[in-house]
């Protein structure tokens, strides 16, 4: 259960007052060479992944949507691997839907669970049972899907700038993917038709066109896992949905908002993520 003292501190203006003491944003290590990727294969699925560091397992899901969620995206909005590989065994992978190196059939009837299958199977392959997870953008709903699929394995979760269904534009994600990701995917996979893309995206973003798509409000209300939400507010990342999820989940915490602008705020947000993960890592270690 979340420490009530920490919750109260996060709700006060103490975090904002500490802003003046925060050092300038750490520059991304653009020239850093990533370790060579590996592949995990299961049937027709081939997942490209990388690991960094040692310690308690931390699954990282980059932003970028269906086409852009891949390992190289873990540098945005900050150098995620660089910040956490010193304390955790970080694991990142390319979604099989992305322009990265993962591949596999497009399971049109189960888009969210298709991705969760890949993530859980990869962790099984690596001999990992319990883990923490941090997801950005599309990684937000993917985090919630993992919480529903494997609640006893997810020790703590971070949903940063999470995607969600904007009430005033409920078909936004379907529309943008039908005109952007879909045609590009078909070019790269000529065995897939736009009719199949339509079915895939309909099941992903229209059934239902509401909230977080892959989980219900009733699930979030009863989800006991610790969750830290860092809201955003752009068309694809609605502030209202992120905050609703944070308010519904009984053991959720929320960051200050905005936390990415000005950029001097990002180190404070990273500090909060680190504190949150350490608190629950310690709980597991001493349980």
Describe it for me?
With 287 residues, the chain is α/β, with parallel strands linked by helices. It has one domain: Alpha/Beta hydrolase fold, catalytic domain (Rossmann fold, 3-Layer(aba) Sandwich). The chain contains twelve helices and eight strands. It has an eight-stranded mixed β-sheet with strand order 1-2-4-3-5-6-7-8, sandwiched between helices. α11 (239-248) links the parallel β7 and β8. α7 packs antiparallel against α9 (194-205).
Quick overview of this protein structure:
With 287 residues, this protein is an alpha/beta fold.
CATH superfamily: Alpha/Beta hydrolase fold, catalytic domain
Number of domains: 1
Intertermini distance: 13 Å
Helicity level: 25-40%
Low-confidence stretches: 4-35
Question: How many beta-strand elements?
Answer: 8
pLDDT average, as an integer? 90
Please state the second-level CATH architecture: 3-Layer(aba) Sandwich
Counting copies of identical and different chains, the oligomeric state is single chain
Q: Strand-residue fraction? A: 15-25%
Record keyword descriptors for this entry.
single chain; alpha/beta; eight-stranded mixed sheet
Secondary structure layout:
Blueprint: H1 4-11, H2 14-17, E1 38-42, E2 45-52, E3 56-61, H3 65-68, H4 80-84, E4 88-93, H5 111-125, E5 131-136, H6 139-149, E6 154-160, H7 172-179, H8 181-188, H9 194-205, H10 217-222, E7 227-230, H11 239-248, E8 252-254, H12 266-286
Parallel strand pairs: 3-4, 3-5, 5-6, 6-7, 7-8
Antiparallel strand pairs: 1-2, 2-4
Helix pairs in contact: 5-6, 7-9
């Amino acid at each position: 259960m979340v420490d009530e003292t920490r919750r109260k501190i996060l709700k006060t203006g103490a975090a904002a007052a500490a802003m003046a003491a925060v050092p300038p944003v750490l520059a991304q290590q653009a020239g850093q060479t990533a370790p060579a990727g590996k592949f995990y294969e299961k049937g027709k699925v081939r997942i490209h992944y990388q690991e960094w560091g040692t310690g308690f397992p931390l699954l990282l899901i980059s932003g970028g949507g269906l086409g852009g969620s891949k390992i190289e995206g873990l540098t945005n909005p900050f150098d995620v691997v660089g910040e956490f590989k010193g304390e955790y065994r970080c694991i990142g992978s390319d979604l099989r839907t992305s322009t990265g190196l993962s591949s596999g059939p497009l399971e049109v009837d189960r888009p969210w669970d298709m991705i969760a299958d890949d993530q859980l199977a990869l962790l099984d392959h690596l001999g990992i049972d319990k883990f923490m997870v941090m997801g950005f953008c599309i990684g937000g709903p993917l985090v919630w899907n993992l919480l529903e699929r494997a609640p006893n394995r997810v020790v703590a979760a971070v949903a940063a700038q999470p995607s969600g269904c904007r009430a005033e534009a409920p078909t936004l994600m379907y529309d943008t993917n039908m005109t952007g990701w879909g045609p590009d995917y078909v070019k790269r996979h000529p065995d897939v038709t736009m009719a199949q893309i339509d079915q895939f995206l309909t099941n992903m973003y229209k059934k239902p066109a509401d909230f977080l798509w892959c989980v219900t409000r009733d699930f979030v209300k009863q989800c006991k896992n610790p969750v830290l939400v860092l809201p955003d507010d752009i068309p694809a990342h609605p502030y209202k949905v992120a905050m609703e999820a944070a308010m519904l989940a009984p053991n959720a915490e929320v960051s200050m908002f905005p936390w990415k602008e000005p950029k001097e705020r990002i180190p404070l947000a990273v500090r909060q993520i680190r504190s949150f993960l350490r608190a629950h890592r310690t709980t597991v270690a001493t349980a």
